[in-house]
Every structure is written in structure tokens, then in C-alpha cells.
Amino acid sequence: MIVTKSWLNNFIDLGKVSNEKLYETLNSIGLEVDSIKTYSIPEKIVVGRILSCEKHPDADKLNVCQIDIGSGTRQIVCGAKNVVDAEYVAVATIGAKLGEDFEIKHAKLRGVDSEGMVCSASELGLPDLGNGIMILDKSIGKLVVGRDLNKYEKLSDTVIEIELTANRGDCLSVHGVARDLSAALNISMNNFEYESQNPEKIGLARVAKLIVKGKIDASVQYAMANMEELHTSLLFSLRLAFIEELQNDALHNILKYITHTTGVILRAYDVSHIDLENNEKLTINLESKDGIVNVTINDKLYSTIGINHVEKKKANEKSLKVLFETSYMNPVVLSDLVAEHKLETDELYYNTSRGSEPNLCFGINYLTYLFEHYNQCKLFDGTISLDEDYEEKIITVSTTKVSQIIGNDIKKINIMTILNDLGFKVQSTAEDKFGVTVPSYRHDIENIQDITEEIVRMIGINNIQAKALEFKESQPMNPTMHKYYAKKALRHHAIASGFDESISYAFADKLLLAKYNFPLVDEELDIINPITADFNTLRTTTLINLIQAVERNVNYSKKRVALFEIGTIFNEKREQKEVLSIIYSGQSETEYVANAGKPKPITFDIFVKKLSAIIGNFELRASNQENLLINPYQSADIIINNEICGFLTKVHPNVSEDFDIPDTFVAEIDFEALIPEHINAHPISNFQGVYKDLSLVVDKHLPYSHISQSIKLLDLPLLNKFYAVDVYEDEKLGEEKSLTIRLFIQSLEETLHDKDIDATVNTILEKLANEYGAKLR
Amino acid sequence: MKKLEEQIKDASSLDALGKVRIELFGKKGVLSGEFAKLKDVPGPEKKAFAEGLNKKKAHLQAIYDACYETLKQEEIERILKAEAIDVSLYNNLNEKGALHPVMATMDKIIDYFVALNFSIEDGPKVEDDFHNFEALNLPKNHPARDMQDTFFFKDKAVLRTHTSPVQIRTMLAQKPPIRMIAPGAVFRKDYDITHTPMFHQVEGLVVGETGEVSFANLKSIMSDFLHYMFGEVEVRFRPSFFPFTEPSAEVDISCIFCEAKGCRICSHTGWLEVLGCGIVDENVFNAVNYKNVSGYAFGLGVERFAMLLHKIPDLRMLFEGDTRLLEQFR
């Protein structure tokens, strides 16, 4: 919503209010100022009166004007076409500065002396008003030849852009903003009142009638005029240019100007074709269907109240007879209708759906005033209208309740005064509670909290005393909090291991997910309005995002990228879960002297050790993952507490090639599996233990996990721990390999005897011989 | 004697000294030879001879020990020198990673509220219309829904446009009093220099008995919180509109880039808008069937806080795993 200070002055005298005060006040009453800009016309620009205007002897497109600038007559050459229509113009005299390095000097244009320049609006720093020079008229004030143009307040105006919240339809007009300011600044409103001075002799009721069918929840008012040539004054042009509504059609301009000034929705229809002289009449039909109010005139559809109009019926500045329609409909009803019936809306719907001005007479009277003062158009006598049965909204206000909500004691008299200033009708009582009638233009006020907001706005939040809340202690720890702290710890482990935390969008490109054989969210559960093709579905893995992050970093010449993310992914059924994802790409270390600037590439071993430093112990088993990032020979399922909770892999060379990235390792693990569990300590043995190495010859393709699983299942009491320490393959061994397992044998109860050690070793050997044909080397 | 002394002193290395030691003090060394002569010395002179010899030996031993010590130190020094390192070659090895500035900012925000006994709550990212809109006093067709460009799914579910549905979920699951924050990712269909389709919010809600929780309380905690986050700044409240709170306010801090003089970042206003808050609307309490309660709620964008706190120039960069940015936070 854009207003200007001089425009507001139509309704409220802001003469004594500085721009700073205005800015502060608007902000403090909830009309957030987006921008505030004062236009100032440079010095030495004066009102000039063109005495004569002749064609330049040597240039077709130039005119030589004699212009009275008060202090004398100046000859000025002007290139604008419209100078021939002008009487009063803005003249930049010698010495005037238009911009930093543009000073007006004596000039000779094709041999003719020129002492100054006739200016266009944009040359003066004002908005562009169309082609040619700016023609001055009395709409900006009395034109005095020679007077400095920067003395005209309506030209050197302050333009304020307000970011209006969705509830404040009442401030979608200059009048509405003035009304709010009036209450806040305690300056009274000049309410606009006007009665037609010189109407057409024919009354509108004689040539038009209104027929109503069904219950109409709307108000409408019609007026009609015989049109004469319309003219958009300089002031209107300028103000419409400020609000970016200036067009080449003078009727359009007048309608926009009135709606922006008064807030009343005003439309105009061409009814020139109706032959009034031969007693043809206008029959205006209002018909409600499911609450939608259609207006037909002589059986043709013209408009749908509050929603739309028929473009072809719209009047323009050339129309001879125009029917004007003002209307109001409750915005809540309107927006439901539009959504339910999927109706098309016109540009005024923005206003009607937020609440336009219900006082329709205001709009018609303003129109009458403009027609009679600035144009020759004549309105038919009177209007025809339908007024909605408007039920007044009365709210009971309790002083105590208002004080409670605000948290400061607010005096009843203050509340009453504020509400009164805001146009509420206050019923005076001696009680704590009193009734107020909500003005019809405040459809957003429904209850005591809304009323309190009005009080808060007008008192100013900065005048409310802050008070700390006292509260009873309670135990705030819950599973979400535990999870947060677990996540925080994990994040700190990851950064301690050299990984940077990354955040990527929870979206993915369906094609990419499919290309690498990741699941897709079921078609019937997918997003219908994605923002771009790259983000056209929910991601089912974070790894593609991370690989893309590596790709970008490689493009920035990064040789080593280590990232992690704890993020949300979704499954086919769109159920969410959080995963820890890790990507490690390129060099295994920074380049420095110890590696002579040539760090080794990351290997499986290095990656697994990093991962272990972050998440602790886990087991790895050959992976059954189906996604195509998997490298079949260097990938694994990650097992914690005997459950598969994720996977890791060296990224398949095909994928590295697709993204043009170096050797890269990734892991994706369910976050839930990484939340630390409660730990009970095991008993610790005080007796000496012994290490025994078993070198076994087994099938070359037998994974160690099978062997370890078998040993575990034996559940041997003396076997404290065991782990693989060496694998050896050579030609001699052929399809077999030698695997060395180190056993640590220890008893909780006694010093070991050789026979106990042998028994343990033999049990293992026997089992492995039976199951895998393992033999001692 | 002098000659022997010279011999010790002339040894230039521990090895050479070792040889001298054997020559002098060894079983077949010079001193042993001298002592062997003892048997040939006549009885009365024996004692004096032996004393003289022992003295001589002690003297030589002392010289030897001193030389040994010197050579030993020289040797250590030589080894140390050989192992000398230019330590400055080991500066800034980048072995530690960095927390993401948005997540670190979120941690900082959470720390504040947890210290004030707020609990942390969470909810799903895919929400239904009731939790995301309806229960928050955003009925269907309400123009305020336009404030939030929503991602919709084919089955009418939505990606949550704010963390506010967590308020509703928490109130439905628990009884008052409530004192919670809900940090997390939210989604809006907006993508330009100042908007990303996903960003993070922290939502807060406090509910007590009727008349217990007031706007003055809200003002108090918000001011304190913003001072905790941004230090010595001025805090300004402006009335605003959110469907789920009434009265509502937007809160600004004095611009930390230009000290409120006016710059590009504060659009020359001297103020930066940082959060929204208000008294919980009665309609929200009605939606969760809470009776006789009062409460306040607030919400803020974590990316905005992070960008202001760390003067990060580009929002979109935050979502690209860009190590040029991240490594600055190591």
C-alpha cells in the first residue's frame, strides 16, 4: 500500500508532523513502513508560461518557445511534441542542476539560442508520466509564473510504502491510513462530504431500475453519467504514477484514483448503446446463486460482485454513457466463494478479499466531486442501491481482561478513548465491562483479543512495561531433548574427525534418484507443485545431495572434501527418518610437508577408521544394497547391535565419472541407531590372559564375518576377545587364503591352565573345520 | 701422567673416548700395568705407592668423567639437531571440521531456552492441513495463507510451512502448563536471493493459567533473548499480524552492520526485523480444547539469525555444502 503525505493531507492535517514522526507512528501502530522517500525538485526550476511556440527554422522536431518565467521572457528550444499543447510548464533556468553533472547553461541549438530547458517529470526526478514535457495545471496549487517549483508541496511529496498485513483491508486506502493515523496522532479527520451541485435533470430512477432475486449478502450502489472529455490532472497522474497505476485512459485513472483514495470498490460499464432518448431503460438484475451475486443489465452479464467483471462491458474514456457501480461484500464470504467455486478474479479482488470500504456513498460522492470540479461530466440525479442487512458487531470489553492480556494495568478511560478514536461506538457504563460497536470497515475485529491488539497498537508496544514471567519448575527432559543432545554430540564427533557439517534441501530430482536406483516416494503421495525440476520430489537419500556438494567443491578446486549431514529422508510411503550421512572425497589429508604435498587418496581403511571415530564400534558385512552408488567390491552394510542400520561404499566409478569427482566414499546410517544406549560394565578379570594366533587356511571367498559369527555362537567362557590380524593370499594357496585370527584367552576365576587354553582353541578349530573346512596352516 | 691426561682430553668422540678408556682403565690398560708393578714395590713403600697410584687413577677418572659428560651432551645435541623441525610448517592443518553456522546458531538459541527450562519438541515435516493451518486459526481460503507459499502433496498433505504445527501437536499431547521450543526445518515455495525452499525456524510456546501469561512477559523474554544473541542492541516492537496470535508483534533490533545509521542491509531504516511473536489467539486454544489458559508464542528464522550474526553474504550458499564458507568456521 502506497500513500503520500500530501494525499493523506486530503483527510488529515499532517502539516505539523515530521517525516520521522510519521515513520515512527506508522510502524508503531502496525503499518510497517517498507520505504519512505521524499521527492525534491531541484532549485532554479520555476513555473513558466509559454507565450509563443514556433517551429525551429532548421529542425523539424524542435520548437522555439518564448516563455515568461516571472523575471522576464526567455527563448527556449524544446524537443517535446506536447509543448504545443502546453501553457504552464516547468522551466529549468540557467544554473539549475538536474543531476550531479548536468547543469543548465546557455546553449545554441541548430543556431538558435536557448536559455533554459522545459522539463519532463522524470528529468525533475519524479516518476515518468509518459511522453513529453510535464504540463503544469492548478491541481498542484495556484500557478504563479516564476515561482520555484519546489515550493509546491504536492510535487515535492513524501511517498510511503506500507507493508500491510493481511487483516488490515481497512487500510488499503489513503482514507483508511489517514483514519488510523488520526487516532494515533490525535489529529481529527476532515471527513469528506459532498453533494452534487449540478446534476442532470433526469433522475437515475427514471431510466434504470434494480431488480433483486434471492438473498443478496452484498451492498451495491449505481450512478450514471453522460460523459464529456475526461482529463487526468497533473496531480492525479503523479499520484497514480507513485502507485504504478497510471495508464493512458483517463477513465481508468479516475476509477483507480477513487478506489485508492476512498477504499470503495468502483467499476464502470459502458451503457452508451442504450437509447434513453427513445425510452429504452436499464434493468439491473442482481441474482444470487449459491451466494455468488451476478449483475446482469438488460439480460447481459456485467459483473460478479466483489469477484470479477466482464471485460468487454468495461467503459473507457471514450464511452459516452457510463454506469458506475460501487460494491461491498464481506471478505470472508468472498474468499470462501472464490475458493469453493474456483472462480476467476480480477485485479480488485485483492482489495475485496481483504475488506474494502463498505461506505459506498463515499465512493460515489468522491466521483461526483471529481466530475463536477475537474471535468464537465454530468451525473444523473440520484443513485439506486441495495444495502445489505448489516448486523452490527458488539463486543463486550473487560478492562481487567485487557490488562491481563497486556500484563500492565490499563485504565478504562484509556481503553474507551482509544476505541472511540478508532471509530468504535463505546457504551459508557460504570462497570469493569462495557460494550463497543465495531465499525463496519473493521471486519477483522471479532473478540477481546482483537480489541486488545487495538489498544496495544495505540499505546505503543514500546510503552508497555516488560515483566519477566515467574513459573513453576518442571522437568523438561523428554525423548526429543535426549535425541537433540545425542545429535549434538554426534555432530561434535564428526567435526573432531575433520568433517564439515552440511545442510542440503530435503528435495531431490526424481530422475537422478531413479538413475541411481534409489526408491521414489509413491506417485500418489508426491509433491504437486515442486519449485524446480531439480527438486521435484522428496529425497529418499541424502547421498545424491552430498555428491552434488562435492561436485561443486571440486569445481572450486577443492582437493579434499569431507562433509556430513544429519538430515531427513523419506521412504516410498513418505515416512520420514533422520540419517547421518558422510562423504569423504579426494585426498586423505591436507597437503603439507609431511606428505610432501602429495597426500594419499582416501582408502577403505582410512574411511572406516574415520567413521569409527565418529560413531564408535560397528560391524561390516557384504552389502545387499540395490542403489547404484555401491561399488560391489568395496561396500558394506553397517551393523550395530546386530541390526543393519546403514551402509558405506566407495562410490562406483560410473558415478564418480558422472559427477566428475575423484575417489569418494560415502555412508548413510539411521540416526536412531546411533543414539547411545545405557551401558552396564562387565566384570574385569584379575588373572593373566594369553594371546594365541590361529593361522587358518580357508576358501578365498569366505568373508571373515562368517567365521567371526561362528566363533561368537560358540559362546566360549574363556574367549575374552578375538579379531583378524592378517590375511595372506598367493599363487601357492590358489583358491584358498591364509587368515590369522588373534585370540585373547582369559578366565574371570583363575589362572589359566594349558589344557583350558587348548580346549578353547580346539573347540574353535573343530567348529571352523566342520563349517568351512578350515585347517591350520 | 700429563700425557695420559692429554690422551683423554684429546678424544673427540664418545667412540674415541671409549678406546682411551680401555687403554687407560681396561684390564690390560696402562693403570692396570701400573698397579701390577705394586707387587714389585718394597714393603715399606708399598702403601705410599698404592696411595699415589689411587690418587692418579681418581684424578684421571674425574677428567674422564668430565670429558664423557661433555661428549655425551654434544652427542645428544647432535642427535637433537638432526631431528630439528621447523614447527611453523605445521600451522593450521585443518584436521577439525566445522559446525554449520546455521546449526551452530540453532544450538545457541536452544541453549538459551533450555537454560530457562523450556523443553524441546518436534513434529513431522509432512503435515496435514489441520496442524499446519486450520488449528492455527488459518481457515481455508484465509488470505493469510497466501503469506506462506505452500508445497502440496497429491493426497492434500503439505510440507510444514512453519514450526507452528508442533505447538498444536504438543498441546494436544500434553496438559498445560507448557513451556516449549520447536526447532526444525520448514518449507516454502520461494526461491531467490533472499528465499530458499527449505529453511529453519525455532518456535516457542508458553501456556499457563488464564491471566498468568501476558504480553509484558513476552516482551521481557524476547528483549532478553535478543540481547543474549546480539549483544548491545536496541530492541523495537511493532504491532503486526499473525493469524495464530493476537495481539501480535514483529521485533526489530537496531542494525548491527551500521549501528543504526542506515545501510543497505537494513534498507536504510537502521532496523533489522528478526522475529515475530504474540499472545496466543483464543481460536488456537479452542482448536486443542484448552480452557482457561493464557499463553504467548514466538517464531524466528535461524538462517536470518546466522547470517546477521556471522555476516554471511549469501543465503543460498548455506545449502550447498560450500567448504569455502564452512571452513571459515573451523
Concise summary:
The complex is a heterodimer of chains A (777) and B (330). By secondary structure, chain A is α+β, with helices and mostly antiparallel strands.
How confident is the prediction overall: mean pLDDT of chain B?
Answer: 91
Instruction: Just name the CATH architecture of the largest domain in chain B.
Output: 2-Layer Sandwich
Largest sheet strand order of chain A: 24-27-28-32-31-30-29
Uncertain segments of chain A? none
H/E element sequence of chain B: HHHHHEEHEHEEHEEEHEHH
Low-pLDDT runs of 5+ residues of chain B are none
CATH superfamily of the largest domain in chain A: Bira Bifunctional Protein, Domain 2
> Main sheet of chain B: which strands, in order across?
1-4-5-9-8-7-6
Q: Report how far the terminal alpha carbons of chain B are from each other.
A: 69 Å
Q: Do you know the CATH topology of the largest domain in chain A?
A: BirA Bifunctional Protein, domain 2
- Please outline the major beta sheet of chain A: 7 strands, mixed
Which architecture of the largest domain in chain A per CATH?
2-Layer Sandwich
CATH homologous group name of the largest domain in chain B: Bira Bifunctional Protein, Domain 2
- Total beta-strand segments of chain A: 36
Secondary structure: number of strands of chain B? 9
What overall form of chain B do the CA principal axes indicate? rod-shaped
The helix content of chain B, as a percent range, equals: 25-40%
- Count up the helices of chain B: 11
